[in-house]
Amino acid sequence: MREGTAPLIRREDYLSPAYWIRQVDLTLDLDAAKTIVASKLTIERNGQQPAQPLRLHGEDLNLLRVLVDGQSVSFRHEDDMLVIDAPAADQFVLEIRNTIAPEKNTHLSGLYASGGGLYTQCEAEGFRRITYFLDRPDVMAVYTVTLRGDKKKYPVLLSNGNLVEQGELDGGRHFAKWHDPFPKPSYLFALVAADLVAREQWVRTRGGKDHLLQIFVKRGDLDKTEHAMNSLIASVVWDEARFNLPLDLERFMIVAVDDFNMGAMENKGLNLFNTKYVLASAATATDADFDGIESVVGHEYFHNWTGNRITCRDWFQLSLKEGLTVFRDQEFSMDMAGSASARAVCRIADVLRLRESQFPEDAGPMAHPVRPDAYQAIDNFYTSTVYEKGAEVVRMMHTLVGREGFAKGMSLYFQRHDGQAVTCDDFAQAIADANPDSALAVNLALFKRWYSQSGTPHLSARGQYDTAASTFTLELSQANPVTAAQPNKLPQLIPVAMGLVGRHSGQALALQLEGEAAPSGSHRVLVMTEATQRFVFTHVTEDCVPSLLRGFSAPVLLDDGLTDADRLVLLAHDSDPFTRWESGQKLALGRLLTALPTGTLELDEPFVHAMRGLLRDPSLDPAFKELALVPPSEGYVAEQTTEVDPQRVHAVRESMVQQLAARLNEDWAWAFAEHQVREGYRPVAEQSGKRALANLALAMLVRHAVATGDTVWPGRAYQRFKDASNMTDRLGALQALVNAHAELAAPALERFHALFRHEPLVLDKWFMLQARAPERDGRVFAQAKQLLKHPDFTLGNPNRARSLLMALAFFNPAAFHRADAGGYVFWAERVVELDAINPQLASRFARALDRWRHLAEPYRSAAREAVARVAARTDLSSDTAEIIHRALQ
Ligand code: ARG
Ligand code: ZN
After folding, report:
1. Which of 260, 605, 683, 734 could cross-link to 290 by cystine, CB 3.0-4.6 Å?
2. CA distance 493 to 312
3. Does residue 79 have a pLDDT over 90?
4. How far is the CA of 725 from the centre of ligand 1 (A)?
5. Number of other residues whose CB lies within 10 A of the CB of residue 75
6. ipTM above 0.90, yes or no
7. 259-284 confidence digits (pLDDT tens)
8. 300 annotated active-site
9. Mutational test site, ligand 1, from 109, 112, 123, max ligand atoms within 8 Å of CB
10. How far apart are CA 305 and CA 419, in angstroms?
11. Percentage of residues in the chain with pLDDT exceeding 70?
C-alpha cells in the first residue's frame, strides 16, 4: 500500500467476521516470476452478524477467476478488498485463482524469493499477498496444501502439518501435498520451496510418542546446525517438564532463510528463521549468538502452545501470545543457564534490554499500552512494549501467584481456551481464577491497568529508621506519567520485592510488618495498589538500607532516595544480585549525571575502590562482574535527562570508561590473565562469563595503552585476534582495537574481512562493529558513510541493512547526532530509499528519530527538519507514514 493515510483501526470497533472459513485447499504452481495460486475455501455464514457481501483482503494480487459453488459470480474491488455477493446458502465453496510474482516481492511479506528458493512470511498480514482471504487471526481453518514446482530448483517442498503425498510430474516437476490437522489462522500458514538439506533428530515425548525434528539449511551449512538442534530438543523437554505442554505434531521443522525481516516465525509445524538464529559454529558465532539461538528457538517452539493452540482474537491482543512467549523463553534461558548467579545474569540482561528500548518507547510519540487501542499498520506494533513490557506484565502475575500458582493458571487457560482465538483479558482471568486468594485475583481490575495504560510508572521510595521504636518506615508513592494519547492515568498494582540490609552488619534482617504476629523471612513482596502507601516494619534491630525492586519485580523507574553510602552497602552485601548490580549502576549513573552540565568528570576514590572491589571479589561470577563494570549506556544516561546533548553524554561516559581503564589498569591485567578459558570452546555460561570479562579487560587495557602511547597491549590484542580459536575471542580482540582507535585496527579489519568474506553472518558483524565504534572526530560516521558504498553492502538483505543503519542510528548516538546534521540527512535519505524496497524495515529504521523532541539544540531543530522532510513525501508506505506522522504530532 503506497498511501500515508491508511485508516486508523480501533480495538473498540472489533466485530466478529461476517463469515467463517472452515477449510482451505490451496494448490500453488511455484515459479519465482509467476506463481499460480488456486484456492478452494469452504465458507460459512456467521449467524451473529447481519447478512452482507463477502469482503476478502488481497494485496498485490493478479486475479484470474472467482467461482461460488462452481458458478461464476460477479465481484468488485473496493479499497483493496475483493467484494463478492455471496449466495443465500449458509455454506458454500469459493474458488479463486490468482497469480503473484515472488521475485518482485522485496517487502519479504507474503511469498518471496531468497537465494534460489521461495519462502513465506504471513504474520501479521502477509497471507493476503498470496491469495484473497479473511486475513484476520480469529478466522481459523484446516489447511490442505499442494505444492508443485521444478524438481531441480525446488527439491524440497514444505508446508504446515504432515506430508500426505508426493510424486513426480511432467516436465521435470514434482509435487508434495501437506495436511495440517489443527485449525489455524492464516498468519500461521507457511511454505518453502528450495534446495535445502536437513539435520534430523527423533525425540520421544513423555507420552511415548516419537517425533521427527528437522532443521533445513542451505547445502554447506549443516555443520552449523548442531546448537539449534540441541536448543530445539531442550525446548521440547522443557515445555513438557515446566508446563506440561507436549509436542503435538508428528514432525516439527525449522527452515533458515537469509532474507528475513524479523528473528523468526512460529508457523504451525514449520518455523521460518532468520539464519542469524540458526547457524552457529565456534569459528563464526559469538557466545551471544549462541544464546540468541537458544532463546529464539525456544521462543518459536513455545509459541506452538502460546500463540498457535491458543491464538489472538485480533491484533490488539498481540501481547497475549508475544508477552507470554517472551516470558516463557526468558524462563527457559534462565533454567538452561543453571546456577542462581547465571540466572541473575540472564535477568540483568533482560532488564537492560527492556530499559534500553522499551522505556524510551514508552516516553515518546510511539508510546502505547501493552494492549494497544489503535493502529494504522499493525507491523509497527511488534514493539518492545508488546514483547518485553508484555513479558514483564506476565512476570508480575507470576510473582503475585507464585510458580505453582502460575502453572495452575496456565493449565486453566488451556482447559478453557485450547483451539480458540482469545484476548488478554481471558489470560489474566484464567491466572486469577486459578488463584482466587492471590493479590492478583483480589485486585484484578487494578492489575489490568498494565494492559491499558501506557507509560513507565515512576515509583519513589523513602525510608526512615527509628532507633527508639526499632521500626523502619517505608513510604512508597507512584506517579503515572502522561503519554501520547493518554492524559489521565490511574495508579497501577506494583509488586515490590524487597528486603532490609543491616547498615553495619550487612545482614539480611527479618521482616515483620506492623500488625503481624511473627517475622516472615528476610525477603518479601509488598503489593502496592494505591498512589501512596506506607509500610512499617517492626522489631528492626539495626539501622538498615532497603533493598527494593529485587529482581526488577516491576517495570518502573525507581527513585529510591538512597545515598552513595547506602548504595555501597547494597553493592557489597545485598543477597539479591539484581539489586547489587543496580546499586553499582546507580553509583556510576549519579556521577555521569552530575558531570553532564560541565562536561568534566573526575572519578572519586570511593567509587574506583568499589569497582576494584567488584572486579577482585572472589565470590562473584565473571559474567556478573562484566555487567557490573560496564557503566550505563549513553542511551540510558540520555533517558535520565530532559534535554539530551548526545555529544556531551558521549564525552562524559567516555571519560568515565577511560578513567576506569587507567585507574584499574593493574586490576584489568590481572582479570585478563585470570579469566582465560583453557579447555575447548563450549557455549556454556561458565565459559562465556570468563570470555566476557577477559574481553572487557582487554578492551580496557588497549584503551589505556592507546591513550598513553604504549604499544604492548595493542600488539597483544592483535596477536590474540589472529590466533583466536573462536569468534567470541576474535571479535573481542578486534573490537578492543577498533574501539580504542588503535593503529592496528585497520589491518585487523582488513584481515577479518578477507577471512570471512564468504560468511554473510560474520560480514554483518564486520559492518556492525565499525558502525558502533565510539565516535572520535567524526571518523566513525565518515566510515559508516563509506561502508554504504562497500561492494558487500546491500539494503536488500535485512540483516546487512540493520548491521550498518540500525547500529549507527540506534546504538551510536555520538556518531549519529552531529552538530552539522549529517547523521539526520543520512537518515532521511535511507528511510526513503529503504521504504521503496521494504516498508517494514524502513519503518523500524524511521524510529531512530521519533524522539527528536527529547534532544537539546541544535540537534532538536535539525532532527525535526529531517523528519519533516520525510513527512513531506507523498509516496511513503503506510508503515513508514504512521511512524513519521506520529513523530511530528
Ligand atoms: N511472531 C513472530 C515472533 O516470534 C514475529 C513476527 C513478526 N512479524 C511482523 N510482521 N512484524 O515473535
Ligand atoms: Zn513471538
Report:
1. 683
2. 25
3. no
4. 35
5. 18
6. yes
7. 999 999 999 999 999 999 999 999 99
8. yes
9. 123
10. 10
11. 99
